[in-house]
Amino acid sequence: MKTSVVASPGVYRSIGGWLERPRSLQPSLQGRVNADVVVVGAGFAGLSTALELRARGADVVVLEREFAGFGASGRNAGYLAGGQGLELDFFLKRVGREKASRIVGFDEAGVAYVEQRLTELGIACDYNPSGIINAGVHPSQEKALRAKMQLGVELGAPAQFLEPAEMRARGVPPAFLFGSYSPGGGTLQPGKYVTGLRRAALAAGVRLFEGSAVEALGEGAIIECRTAHGHAAAPHVVLAANAYAPQLGWLKDKVLPLRVSAIETEPLSAAQLASLGWPRREGIVTPHLTMESHRLTARDTLILTTKRLAYVYGGQTPNVPDEAAYAQLAIALAERFPTLRGLAVQTCWSGYISFAADALPVVGEGGANGNILYTAGCSGHGVGTQSLIGRLLAERICGDEPAMLQALRHETPSLPPEPLRWAAMRGLLAMANAMDEGVNRKVRAQ
Ligand SMILES: Cc1cc2nc3c(=O)[nH]c(=O)nc-3n(C[C@H](O)[C@H](O)[C@H](O)COP(=O)(O)OP(=O)(O)OC[C@H]3O[C@@H](n4cnc5c(N)ncnc54)[C@H](O)[C@@H]3O)c2cc1C
Fold it and tell me: Pick from 13, 12, 29: which is nearest to 21 by CA?
């Protein structure tokens, strides 16, 4: 197959492609406030926690560095995926089958939780419950894909294998040869979802302070969160800053911030859409070591993400474009969708996920009094899980230990210090890219 590379990577959007800075930006924290719980970070995790706590009668303050949805929650691909999306190879041996199946159960429950919350909170976010296909682009990917699917099914994540004829009967674009189809979940517009959570939180009486970066967290029975112009104090703090938590001095040796990038095309014409088929618009991911994700949006654009990840020395999270990643995604666009030759990339953006060495959630308590709860390490699968974790953390703060939270507790392996970490990540990412390129070369040679 001949590659036609789209020349322009599109216009870079520093806040992602799905949302705008809110017109009704909430005031920044000035002076001192007290609450039952202070939540740091207003993404899916922070806002869900705040809403669940309010529903239980707690007085909640949320401190957000920029605005709700500024982090990964406003920049992701919008796949609401269950347990088949997990990196089972990373942790099965480590935690054993019994715990692994409870973790898979948590991911599956995350899908149902978000679906329920969209209804309960009246959030319209273009949700398409299409299911998700992990689709091979070369026959060499089939064996491992079947094995991974089977393992996921055994651990409790439903899926069925789609043979090439079934893929064609579904109208999935022909570059995707066969696939493992997870019927649960689908795709949504994450900007609308996180904005809906923000709106619901404000309506419920959550006190949200935007433009309020926490600079330091104290310790003790009452925890002080210091911002540039104020203090928020509470007997419990929930740290929901995800990939940014290490910059606050938390989870430094547990989670790696990884940059994930996205491109979005201009809207497809009716003829271009017809050339694709794809009537159910299932979210597609590929089984490359670093996956590609391909989806249509309700605004008839195509969004591609991932394919290339980046780690910045010291776990920094600069809000900058990643031209190399956009160029690679443009190649994937041209190669997987040859009927769209000439379709322009309209926008591109990047964001940060947090990755633990075992690819599992990092959830627990810290601080001298054990009253700083944290959640991170969602490893690029946080639309469902980082939403559901809000309910579990709220229940925990209210005195219960939900079984699902218990299932997530485990010893996260420690990461090596810099500069070893940077060197190791550079090597691992280069190796994954080289192996994925090997597959892509075979596809081109067909
Ligand atoms: C390009 C991309 C594609 C992805 N695709 C998918 C997908 O399709 N499906 C899926 O399930 N997951 C996907 N993910 C991952 C998913 O977006 C995340 O797992 C999820 O959004 C994490 O939510 P969160 O609330 O934990 O963190 P975030 O959304 O990152 O929220 C953290 C918040 O904390 C704030 N903050 C940081 N530091 C401070 C501070 N000092 N003081 C106050 N506030 C602070 C940040 O501004 C941010 O708003 C993707 C991620 C990216 C980047």
Answer: 13
